[in-house]
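fyi for ur records
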Amino acid sequence: YKYIHNTYYFSTYYFKKNIIYDRAASNLPDKSELYKKLFPKEGANDIIIQSLNKVNAKYILVHKDKTNFFSDPLKEVKTTDYEDLFKKNNFTLEESSNEFNLYKNKEYLPIIYSEKSIQFRYINDAKYTIYLNNLKEKVNLTILINQNPNWKLYLVKNPSSSWCKPIEFYNNTQTTECQSSQKFFEGEELSYLYKKPIFDDTHKTVYGYANSWTIDADYIKSHYSKDYYKENSDGSIDIELVMYFKPQSYFYLGLIISATTLIGCIIYLIYDWRKNRKQGCLIKK
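which gave:
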């Protein structure tokens, strides 16, 4: 487990999963109403559980000798106090030691889900692949990553879910998480500098921190050719999307320009050195 200090990094703030604890919050603004409710000054067990669910906390690591979820900071907290709290709210005890208890939230949601059956795959911190099945009407696509307007959705041509190698199925949302490819660069990222994203006008904040888009099947069928969706016998469609953090393309472009410049300088220096060496040999002769 990572112990997070009061230090924030660009990659952590924009990309990593939420880590909530009683002295700081990665991926949540310090002034967020949700953050304030998560650790109330006055005891409110219902608020604590609701807030943990909103930030999609999968695991809760409790210090047996330090953590106080309750109203009186001087009150002695017994182990049974928080055991009862979590047991009553769909948390199971996974591991236990003299210093810690580790609880798992059985209502944990996948990082990406919708009202329809869905498969998703993590590519890297700036890119995810998503496959939505049997779309007939408008559905909400929710991404539990820190909200930022630079997250964009792009419709993929010739949709396919053949890339999905299932590693976990979330029955509560009918979502399949697929094995990550963990590629730094796939070659198409620079095209997102000029490609038009889809449903950008529906992009909004949910739960005080996360992203949501409204996916409209009728809009896709009326504005895109059949190359961009797979039509089923019942009239529904399957689509493939890429969720991408667009500023990453500028980073790749900068790397390419820097590398090209460096290689050009090295080639010039080698050429100049060989030219001077050749002229020196001619003078000696």
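Residues 247-284 form the longest helix (38 residues). thats all i got for now
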